[in-house]
Amino acid sequence: MDRLDAIRLFIRVIERGSFSAAAREAGTGQSVVSKQIVALEAQLGAQLLLRTSRSLRMTETGQRFYESALRLVDYYAALEALARDTQAAPSGLVRIAVAPVFGRLYVVPHLLAFFERFPGIRVEMFASDRYVNMIGEGVDLAIRHGDLADSTLTARRLATSPFVTVATPAYLERHGVPAAPADLTSHACIVFTGREEIRPWSYRGGDGAKMLHRPDGSFLTNDGEQIRAAVLSHLGIANLPAWLVMPELASGALTSVLRDHEMETTAISAVYPSRRGLTAKVRIFIDFLVETLARDLQER
Predict the structure, then answer these.
(1) Of 6, 17, 96, 145, which has fewest CB within 10 angstroms of its CB?
(2) 280-296 and 60-85 helices cross at what angle (nearest 10)?
(3) Residue 155, pLDDT score
(4) Cα separation of 149 and 165, whole Å?
(5) Cα→Cα distances 20→65, 143, 180, 270, Å
(6) Rg (CA), the chain
(7) What CA–CA distances, in Å, run from 48 to 42, 43, 45?
(8) What average pLDDT score do residues 186-194 get?
(9) Which phi-psi region, left, alpha or beta, contains residue 188 (left: φ > 0; alpha: ψ -120 to 50)?
């Protein structure tokens, strides 16, 4: 095993948390992994890991080496990808993770055009609202919404979507149209409970300052698709990302209210493990998403 392979193995040990887990993933024995790490430490003249029968942790030197090793492996992967990309048309499998409703509305409808343009690329979609472990689960690309906290991933902004306040025409005809955020206190609000906390609705007040409305209503959920279904069922007014209801706004099934007071937006981003490098097939798929979202999420 050369030094670069040993460095990759060291990274795998850190990410998996044990020699045995790294060995299973590498398809080798635990003793082989241990010997390679010992040899790497001998070559470097420094101890990278502190080992006990119950734990494994990096030394201070190991932590600095790990951070530099990630950049090294990332750079080398990018060089390999560049060499491959210049030799042939992009091909292979792109494994993506996406929220079910977003995939249904904004990814699947465009796949036919994508495959016609790039016949050598296949797409495997993991539809889930949970945050997948991209490296552990072998995912090339994930589409995520809102602020991104995981600094181990590289992100590219795909689009930005405003939050909108919407209701059905039938609901508004029965209960009236709110003219200002303060009027929402007399309306049934459909409430999003993220991580057991109620998400406040943000608006721009008459003086331009930010104001928050704490929604109250009979229906609460932690799922955006259920909020979408509830507002379409005339249960009340909802405040949600515009991308969730663009088709309904376009058709007139939903009406947007308080538009002069809107101020909150949410980012839609593509994230990928930086140390793998951005291969041609993944870059092409990201570019395609940017192109299609620019059309789908145009000014309503």
Answers:
(1) 17
(2) 80
(3) 83
(4) 27
(5) 21, 32, 60, 32
(6) 24
(7) 10, 11, 10
(8) 91
(9) beta
CB atoms within 10 A of CB 292: 18
**Average pLDDT in the 164-179 region?**
96
What span, in angstroms and rounded, lies between the C-alpha atoms of 92 and 119? 10
The single residue listed with the structure tokens 């343009």 is: 117
Torsion of CA 6, 7, 10, 11, to 10 degrees: -140
Q: How far apart are CA 277 and CA 134, in angstroms?
A: 13
> Residue 88: its pLDDT value, please?
59
DSSP-derived secondary structure for the chain: --HHHHHHHHHHHHHHTSHHHHHHHHTS-HHHHHHHHHHHHHHHTS--EEE-SS-EEE-HHHHHHHHHHHHHHHHHHHHHHHHHHTTS---EEEEEEE-HHHIIIIIGGGHHHHHHH-TTEEEEEEE-SS---TTTTT-SEEEEES----TTEEEEEEEEEEEEEEE-HHHHHHH---SSGGGGGGS-BEEEEETTEEPPEEEE-TTS-EEEE----SEEES-HHHHHHHHHTT--BEEEEGGGTHHHHHHTSSEEE-GGG---EEEEEEEEEGGG---HHHHHHHHHHHHHHHHHTS--
Average pLDDT, the chain: 87
pTM, to two decimals: 0.66
Contact between 284 and 118 (Cβ < 8 Å)? yes
CA distance 219 to 227: 9
Per-residue tokens: 123? 């797409």
Distance CA 84, CA 82 (A): 5
